[in-house]
């Protein structure tokens, strides 16, 4: 069974998956948010299609570790998501994940247009890789 990570933003959701052995993560896609119902249906279909056992959600904590408005919105979304898709959801600190994803993409030689289009999925992959590495 795989793990899925979500980098939830106000306009987009980055999605990443682990390999079946939970060693490596890869960005899967970027979901353009339309409505909570549409988002949940799409995520539920991805969970089913890829046999996902748990969803890791990037938790946008403030630099001092406290929970701000964005983190509260993500927490509310994650609670609805867990109920809608029927798999456990766990939070993981997403500090600097987007910046790290941007750096990885630059080092890989990605074009600026590709970086803009895929950054959220790569950030989700960074979150997931950090989570899996912490389990070792």
Task: Please give the structural blueprint.
Elements (H helix, E strand, L loop, with lengths): L1 E7 L3 E7 L6 E8 L3 H14 L2 E8 L9 H17 L3 E5 L3 H11 L4 H24 L1
Parallel strand pairs: 1-4, 4-5
Antiparallel strand pairs: 1-2, 2-3
Assign the CATH architecture.
Answer: 2-Layer Sandwich
* SSE arrangement, N to C: EEEHEHEHH
In CATH, the homologous superfamily goes by the name: YqgF/RNase H-like domain
Note the overall shape. globular
Which stretches are low in confidence, meaning pLDDT under 50 for 5 or more residues running?
Answer: none
- The mean pLDDT is 92
Number of strands: 5
Find the CATH topology.
Nucleotidyltransferase, domain 5
Largest sheet: 5 strands, mixed
How many domains, as an integer? 1
Structural features, described:
The protein has 136 residues and is of the alpha/beta class. The chain has helices at residues 36-49, 69-85, 97-107, 112-135, and strands spanning 2-8, 12-18, 25-32, 52-59, 89-93. It has a single domain (2-135), classed as Nucleotidyltransferase, domain 5, CATH 3.30.420.140. The protein contains four helices and five strands. The model has no long low-confidence stretch (mean pLDDT 92).
């Amino acid at each position: 069974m795989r793990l899925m990570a979500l980098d939830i933003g106000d306009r987009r959701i980055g999605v990443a998956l682990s390999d079946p052995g939970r060693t490596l993560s890869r960005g899967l896609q970027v979901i353009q948010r339309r409505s909570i119902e549409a988002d949940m249906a799409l995520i539920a279909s991805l969970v089913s299609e890829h046999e996902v056992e748990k969803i890791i959600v990037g938790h946008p904590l403030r630099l001092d570790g406290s929970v701000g408005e964005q983190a509260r919105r993500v927490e509310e979304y994650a609670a609805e998501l867990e109920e809608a898709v029927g798999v456990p959801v766990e939070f993981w600190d997403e500090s600097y994940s987007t910046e790290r994803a941007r750096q990885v993409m630059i080092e890989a030689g990605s074009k600026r247009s590709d970086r803009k289009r895929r950054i959220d999925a790569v950030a989700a992959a960074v979150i997931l890789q950090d989570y899996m590495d912490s389990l070792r």
